[in-house]
What does this fold into?
Amino acid sequence: MSDFVLFDEEFQQIKDVIGRLKADAQAKVVFIVDKNGQQIAAQGDLEALDTTSLASLTAGNVAATDGLARLIGEREFPVLFHEGERDNVYISIVGQRVILVVIFDERSSLGLVRLRVRKANADLERIFERIQKKVELEREKRHDGIDSPFAEITDEDIDSLFRE
Amino acid sequence: MTFINYAAREINCKIVYYGPGLCGKTTNLQYIYDRTNPAAKGKLISLATETDRTLFFDFLPLDLGTVRGFKTRFHLYTVPGQVFYDASRKLILKGVDGVVFVADSQEARMDANIESLRNLEKNLKEHGFDLATIPYVLQLNKRDLPTALTAEEMYRQLNYKGEPTFEATAPVGTGVFDTLKAVAKQVLMELRKK
It folds into this structure.
């Protein structure tokens, strides 16, 4: 299976899209997670949030509902919505690969979030397609003899990680 | 599937602790959590039943430090060991970079170890991975129990491909970090090949 690689240019584009979405949807927080639970980017009031745990639980949640979907003959449930007393979470799948999460409260509404997410989703899908192409290109280049920055990792480098 | 973020200069890897029910997967994570510097770890999340059996997964994010200018972050997961949670177990293996198999040394649990190892092999295959090639470590846990089989006997029955094998007593930490280090090392070495 291929690794997921994120470059500066696309990282900035993703941040721009979700920053815009946060403003347009009047959301508190917007973040993107890959389906394996790694956070890709986040925008908003992140101070009080444990984004690493959020990412992992979101991916677990999506994985579980994907499993449910397949059991009843659906490919996936592209949208999940959790309604709380104060805050709500709107989760949607982008291009079957990454997960877009919007956290919002009474200053916004489900209808507004749904509308804005639809637009952002399309933009994000294009960006992730570009990333995919770029990764494939990089891989071909590497086969032509250009080394990855990790080609030189030594035992010593790794041992040093575990020193007290 | 390693996630390499050039923008944030981070490498993110996923390690899964596998093994039969009550073999000590969660205890491994708990010990790592207790003994890791607070700056290097996130919250330990356990999705467990009321009786503290893992229901979906435990999750512990760890920052190990920097390699070649990249921050290395490991996400450690456990699977629910009980046989009937197979659907959930399969989900956790998605995108895995390295696997630790925690075996229960008690003689009475040997069949459960073997069944779980076969289940691991099968579930990896369904995600397109091969136990023969994926970074993999075997941990023989509960070495302190009087009913434990000899390490040689366990190795004979559970060794898959000459993988690094460690004897452990997870509640007191024996072998826990050696196991983690061995699997992390293999995962990082894999990056060299890519």
